[in-house]
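Re: your question about VOC domain-containing protein

S., sorry for the slow reply, the queue was backed up all week. Below is exactly what I fed in.
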Amino acid sequence: MPDTKVAGPRAAVHSIDHFALNVPSIADAARFYRAFGLDVREVRNGDELELRATDGHRWARILPAPAKSLAYLSFNGYERDFDMLARQIEAAGAVPAHAPEGADGGGIWFHDPDGNLLQVKVGPKTSPSAKAPHVTVGAGANARGAVTRSQVETVHPDRLSHVLLFTPDVLRAIDFYARAIGLCLSDKSLDIIAFTHAPHGSDHHLVAFAKSSARGWHHAAWDVRDVDMVGQGAAQMAAAGYTRGWGTGRHVLGSNYFHYVQDPWGSFNEYSADIDFVAPGQPWPAGDFAPEDSLYQWGPDVPSDFIRNTEAPGASAR
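Result:
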């Protein structure tokens, strides 16, 4: 088993800058992400999409391709850490790579052990530096506690929270990401699933890994204000025709309220609220939990297609 503990001081990235996702239909992607409540902008004469949340940051590029897959994942770090990060990435055995066409060519480009293309560069901290308050206020006596359905406003996520990748070797993945870019283990369940955070102030998970026969893209999670908005997001997507997914419920590892909506290619986008937060420089009591006690505290049963990697050989989106 790889050593998942970080020995000695180590530089670390502080945020995800953005992800780039290949999809077989830009038009289908635009419909899905607009229904989800994101700011979808067409660029390159409509051949590419950019996704923004209410914070205005460009969180994703959606690119045309024959099939769905992660094109690359870009991380930001502090300028003071960049040289050490470069040394760590080399020492971890990363395979050097070139920037793909259309991407920012700055920083360091390399492949992880599964072949995922990664970028590390100097950039702004997009992850939160403190835990946002989560307050659901109940109505007092003689007052209505909810608005009518016609008064419910469209849910627009505030920011990207985290991403989850399929990997053939979860333990190898958490070891590599710790040695190369300083991500810390938050919690895991055997060699089935693991969650990692950045040590400069981070949600419980910035990047997570789930076991599969092949690499793949599982989901992106988008932060909303409270559990009510998680449920409203689910209803919003169902009204738009996107009824497949999982939720609403509450996770155990990360503690966040969730609702996952399946995209047209078999992966997911998650409405997430009130995820655990690890303050800068603070230790987190990483645990190893039994599978039956690690995925959700309450909610509907996990659908059979939730853990299907549609990028694995022989798999399909449905």
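Residues 15-124+157-307 form a domain with the 2,3-Dihydroxybiphenyl 1,2-Dioxygenase; domain 1 fold (CATH 3.10.180.10). Residues 227-239 form the longest helix (13 residues).

Happy to talk it through on Thursday.
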